[in-house]
Amino acid sequence: MLQRFRQWMCPDLGIDLGTANTLVAIQGEGIVIDEPSVVALQKGTRQVLGRGSAVGKLAKQMLGRTPDSITAVRPLKDGVITDFELCEAMLQYFIRKATKQSRGMRPRVVIAVPGGITPVEKRAVFNSAERAGAGRVYLIEESKAASIGAGLPISEPMASMVCDIGGGTSEVAVLSLGEIVAAQSCRVAGDELDEAIMEYMKQHFSLRIGDQTAEQVKMEIGSAYPLERELTTEVRGLDTISGVPRKAIVTSEEIRDALQEPVEAILACVKGVIERCNPELVADLSDNGLVLTGGGALLSGLDKLMNEQLGIPVRIADEPLTTVARGTSICLEHLNHWRSSLDSDVEL
Ligand code: ADP
Ligand code: MG
To answer: Which ligand neighbours the alpha carbon of 114 most closely?
Structure first.
């Protein structure tokens, strides 16, 4: 009863602090915030624009299109916080927006962080969340949250495998009995795919394109495996020789070629983790397979390619962009069960 009252007064929050997107889930309500992890600043200052409100969607629109007086920054890169102060400002904005100040109470918060994060970085996330208005803070490894969100039976004495492909990192993990038994974080993910497209356009079309254009091309016609019907799209950029704007038509075959190297790097990371598992776990994997989560899971044909190359079943989680956030929320619902395996601010 008391718990229900507390929950009503001050709902607990699950946060997926991603390099590309930050999602906030309120227990019992679902995902209430899903915005890019971007902050816009007055150039030369640490002042967030719009009295601290130029965060998320609004700030992303400014990326790459800002007048000289404004810069738009991503406070996380390669899965780690590169700008603590801005990360805190961003968390604060999202936590306040999600709780509408929580009637003055401080919510309990579970935050998903990359597996490779150092103790110093953990401390920084704790401090940011606390200063942003959180009460008790717990950290959960992203891949564990992804597995919980994807509904994998990770508490069973049986191997489950997940590969979460975000903007900055791909997190691969094998879990059993609620714990990670083998894992690797690789710094090749969505951003690298975009960069590979930019590089390809420069090399093969003498066209310089922006990263948002590259991302669009990736989502529209990018693939990791031959398509039943190959596609084309028009790309606009700057001619690297004449320096004037120009259009080009690219095919999905060309973009697949551009993406081959980073896609293979992600595949190698998955193979590396499987190789480190003992034979019993590997036997489980050939039944249970691999689940793909994160926005990168949506790259067309990636599941097919992985299935062919790894020889195990591969499936894409439902709504892969929200799997981690939903995992943090499920973790909050069963906090008594998970608490002992999470890092909490009281221990560090
Ligand atoms: P993070 O956890 O790092 O915030 P997300 O899981 O939100 O990352 O995924 C963002 C990444 O997913 C971006 O690099 C984005 O380009 C990519 N992405 C989103 N949708 C698609 C799609 N349909 N095809 C390929 N990549 C996609
Ligand atoms: Mg993520």
So the answer is: 2
